[in-house]
Amino acid sequence: MLTRSYDPRKVGLALQYVQLTITEGEISMSVRVDLNISLDGYATTEGGTPDNPMGEDWNKLTAAYVATKTFREWVLHDTSGNGTTGVDDRYGAEYFEGVGAEIMGAGMFGFHTFPDDPDWKGWWGEEPPFRVPVFVLSHRLRDSIDLPGGTTFHFVSATPREVLERATAAAGGKDVRVGGGVSTVREFLKAGLVDQLHVAIAPILLGRGINLWGELRAFEVGFAVRTETAESGTVHITFLRPS
Amino acid sequence: MLTRSYDPRKVGLALQYVQLTITEGEISMSVRVDLNISLDGYATTEGGTPDNPMGEDWNKLTAAYVATKTFREWVLHDTSGNGTTGVDDRYGAEYFEGVGAEIMGAGMFGFHTFPDDPDWKGWWGEEPPFRVPVFVLSHRLRDSIDLPGGTTFHFVSATPREVLERATAAAGGKDVRVGGGVSTVREFLKAGLVDQLHVAIAPILLGRGINLWGELRAFEVGFAVRTETAESGTVHITFLRPS
What we know:
The structure is a homodimer.
Chain A: H1 15-23, E1 31-38, E2 42-43, H2 55-66, H3 69-74, H4 87-96, E3 99-105, H5 106-109, E4 133-137, E5 145-146, E6 152-156, H6 160-171, E7 175-180, H7 182-190, E8 196-202, E9 210-211, E10 224-229, E11 235-240
Parallel strand pairs in A: 1-7, 1-8, 3-4, 3-7, 4-6
Antiparallel strand pairs in A: 2-9, 5-6, 8-11, 10-11
């Protein structure tokens, strides 16, 4: 394995404490995944329209996260202080903490929106929320893109293991996140490369999209599991690989 | 609809209070479902062996429930007082409260174990835990069976709506539970006949069995949802149809 995760004696303690031990250098980097899924396991951007490009399913999946103070600050650049500050926001803040590099599929970058425009910089805006090197898996190679705030998009055609080596080197000892989409995440899960899987489950049934869970029987073996519910009704489940 | 469920003003209040209002007669009967499922939506008794007839998957699915004080008392007739008394036990106690009749599929009764033995009384033992009239859906009709403790098994060949009418009449104003298995429950869910769906989700991935969630897109619309986590890591999600 490329990574080591938490001391099993500490798993289950409060998040703040886990992060403290990271700061103290007791724990080396992890490969992390965080996804919003439905109760039936789907994430999707199906059903988009010009007015609602991500689709109503996506809006329902992410409503509790989008409402958080952290999302509003980091993604929408809303510094008014508005937004929820409960359990969902704690996970939202954790999302951005301790990550030194990101890996994503071509779809998450937004390649498919303007496939023939060499100047298209993805749909993450002029100041993307990642603020770290981002490795975009694509057979369509092009020059890296530097954007304000610290995000650099690199385009690579590689296996999950190969791109993870590049991202780990770029992360400088911090964690690497496999950001999405679901198909990309599933490749890393099935290859056994993920040390921490956090799903935020909206209690809705979508019945369409890409299912996260297929062919992952007994994934939980060897992981500690933390379950928690938020004020919004969202269920947070985290699988942590002990070191 | 045959049924009415909770006053929407009361949804989300503590379970004890909801049950109090039932006792006071403010709320009429509900059709209830309670199932143990995996994170990927499966319930199953696949993989059984002579030594372990329900299979290891079933044992993992139900481990937290089987450990409760209520299960030990009601199902195993263990009056020692042993067993867990936390959130899982509270749901376990709720399972048996306020139910006046039960509906189950032939498989849950145990028809398939000794299909040709007219004296076979199912695998629920000499004193089954239901203690109410139980309507077993089967094309194999036979005489009703009275057992100690108040359980009577009736065998009926009928549609979900027809058997629900019979069970409702037998329940005397109390709730009717559709007990299982998953295929039977899915028929009632898809027909819109269920007022309260409670799933106890074990944070494990089975990847095989019968999936509860297929073809139930947007089931949650029109239901209030309550999510809660237990000390065991089990996630309890309840969909309640407001009256």
